[in-house]
Amino acid sequence: MERTWIAGAWLRAAVVVGSIGAVAAAPQSSPVAVAPTDSRPISIDVVPVPLNPQNPSEMAIGDFLYAGGLVLTSRQTDQLHGLSDLEVTGTDRVTAVGDLGILVDARLVLDSVGRLVGVADARLTQLTGEDGKPLSDKTDADAEGLALFANGDRLVSFERRDRIWLYPAAGGPPRPVPMPGASFPPNVGMEALSADLEAGADAYVVGAELSGDTWTCRLLSTPCIKGPTVDKPAEFGLVALKRLPGMRTAYLLRAFDPVRGLRISLQIFRSSTMVARMDLAPPATVDNFEGLAAVPQADGGVRFYLISDDNASATQRTLLLAFDWRSQ
Hints:
Layout: H1 9-12, E1 39-42, E2 45-48, E3 60-61, E4 64-73, E5 83-89, E6 93-98, E7 102-110, E8 116-126, H2 138-141, E9 143-148, E10 154-158, E11 163-167, E12 175-176, E13 192-195, E14 203-207, E15 213-218, E16 221-229, E17 237-244, E18 248-257, E19 261-270, E20 273-280, E21 289-296, E22 302-308, E23 319-325
Antiparallel strand pairs: 1-8, 2-4, 3-4, 4-23, 5-6, 6-7, 7-8, 9-10, 10-11, 11-12, 13-14, 14-15, 15-16, 17-18, 18-19, 19-20, 21-22, 22-23
């Protein structure tokens, strides 16, 4: 989602000098519904960032351990902007969706202890419409949420022209799937999207940014069923959610005002009970975080990845941060 009012000068202070180059190569992700000419390899440059630039030794926020963070840029394309959601499969395959109507598939580079240190093998793909042609108009291309089914099919939610499309893993044009029977204000629509495998192989959850309302939908039935409303302060919007094992849900909330700047709250619930919370605000490394991925770990914990939408602004950054959380 565009947020043209976000302040920028205080954000620039968080940049750390350094660079790690990533050489592009062919991806190993599932096929997407585009012609080959609309998909191309790109190199992504990264700059590591500390959790807190004022205290680089800080490595945790409560029970959430910082596992590395990067600023992402590319000298090969002007489209690596506006990234709004992401999914991570296995330990290192990442897909991000952006509100310029793009998908970015890449490999996360982890060091010997599993910390995020780079991004490699990146490929940028234009999302297509039902006619098979790349989306070009901003009203049609404003992709905000991303969900991945076990068979590789991808769901993408859009705002401005509100809809949810399924992009088949085997290729071919997208098709509309059920969406909540609600009206959304302009530019504050279905920001949050997640597959809900514990509810069924075709189930997914949709969340509205402004109201915090959620719905459970299914590919093979309509209508969507109203779920809980996220209990949030009015100044926060629901920008992402992900279902976790054990009937838990992670919600990503975002707020901004000129005095306090950007604030992020990652909250984990089991049913209506909050079991963990991480709040991210200045002087910590923070930007317009809109995307959330959750990777369950063998020890019962979860690796979370957060990605920010830079609005193609010179005063904002595309940040990718990693945090490890272990339930108590």
